[in-house]
Structures
1.
Amino acid sequence: MQRHRRYFNYLTFDAIYAQRGIINLARRFGKGVVIVLKHNCEDLLQDAEQLLPMSSLTITEHGDTKRYLREVEELANWEPAAAKLRVVESQEVTTETRTVKKEKILVRVRHTWIWLTTIPATELSADGIATIGHRRWKLENRGFNELANLWHAKHCYCKEPRAIEAMLFIIVIAHTLFDLFYLRRLKPETRERYSKLALRLDWLAH
């Protein structure tokens, strides 16, 4: 974090990382954290669930998804952290595709997400916290999932430790450059015709 601190402003984590060391380390380097709040932090979750219904409601829309947002600022000191924290809840109503009797249908579903954050409301809105929280899954899908399945990063091409590290760096760099080209340089109609896998296979064939 010390070497690359200027490349990012916020860190997003799963609930297992709601720990004193991680939160305080990020604060020491001036970075905000957004962490999914689950039952592993039972006391904090109970406090938040009691206070959130009394807070004001904000509604935002993102395509087919509508967010009903509430937040509690400066929650009383939580033992694992050295400072007061903020909790954001997003109840989201969206359209999902379900398969019923071998037929695909569209249904409206509701999901509830709660995040713990050190980012103050003056810096980022509750809607912004929810957006960052959801980006963690996009990073996992675009990063780890694609590296493993499209770029075969799970395969060990060599046995020497430094060679393994170098090979992983090469794969990550190739994946990053390809992703930037696919998302930034190709026209939308081309992306509709070619998936990333189809485009990569087409290039390899030539």
2.
Amino acid sequence: MSEKTSPLPERYDDRGPFAEGGTAAVHLVYDRILGRSMATKIAKATDEQHLERFRREARITAQLEHPNIVPVHDLGPTWFTMKRVEGATLANIVRAEPFGQALLSRVLDILLKVCDALAFAHERGVIHRDIKPENVMVGRFGQVYLMDWGIAQVGGVSDSPWAGTTAWVAPEQAPGQMCDPRDRKSTRLNSSHLVISYAVFCLKKK
């Protein structure tokens, strides 16, 4: 993206998109001050209501400082910068690797780290609400990050009681009721975690 059309300040050299979703595009940028590459999520929306939801995602993610939650570095009116994760989603890993003990052991290790991130968020009253293999990133050196907190419920407050990806939504979310983080403080896997485990077998059949 050229500097004339980029919404980013002069500090960041926008090197173009490398991923895109329905509401935002993710660009690779270079921080001229710190001398490092990072990712920048740029909103597609132009109306203030949707932009505020976008900025809300950045604030929620930034406030959840945990090794398994991607760090957010900076926030602007229509963009925010975050750590660039070089790796693959859990969905891609499951599809690419042969089914067997090695894959199951790797997936279990990944899910335990996802559980750590969720336990940390739940202690702070934050419910992710869109847990699925595509939202779990695994870095080249085994780092695990739970991504995309855009529809999270915070302190019992959310833009919509029902949210999530239909194929992966937890049973307690399906009726449209608000989730209670106090129900997630045991060491047992909740239904959302079990959905991801089930995905391992479903994805291998595709």
3.
Amino acid sequence: MKYRRRLYWFVAVIYAALWCTHSSLAQKNVSQAALTFDEIDPIAIAVLNQAQQLSFKNGVEYCGFIALDTMGALRATAPARGLIDQCSPDAPDDWTLIASYHTHGSVDLTDLESSFELPSSDDIESDHLDEVDGYIATPGGRLWFVDGHQQIAYLIQPAGFMMTDPNYQSDDCTLHQSYTINELRYLETDGFIECDDDHSTKSLD
């Protein structure tokens, strides 16, 4: 697990600057120690786009795990339905968990001032406690990667990359490429406005 997380962290930094062309979405039999984003990312993107459709239809989060099954196949669990702002994924006990995935629900037409385009500190903490990494898709189509070991979230794709909520109104927010869990905690307690120019520079680190 430690080797894999270090590998993820290294590649996530590169992916923040350059997105590589991915391979087929087919399940692959792979060695746990040899896992790279070439195997994991396509599965995460495919299952999250399925989950996005469900989120936009039902107005709640959907989540699951990417894992190695008992035959060594890398696969994703079916999206599990959560609540408006939380979701608890599950997987067979005999699977080896690699990463979590979840959506951030849908645009709330009764509260257009609220936004779910950033990961939360709880998102990072959950992955850290489960000893996995994570993927998050937002209503605006952004894709985040969570390094559960380092407790850092990386923006690896901008708005519109993932399936996007039809009610999402494009914003002019310039989000930072990464946030530590302490930065997100500060922003959450500070009552930040996502489009403030300096909101992501404040940190407790």
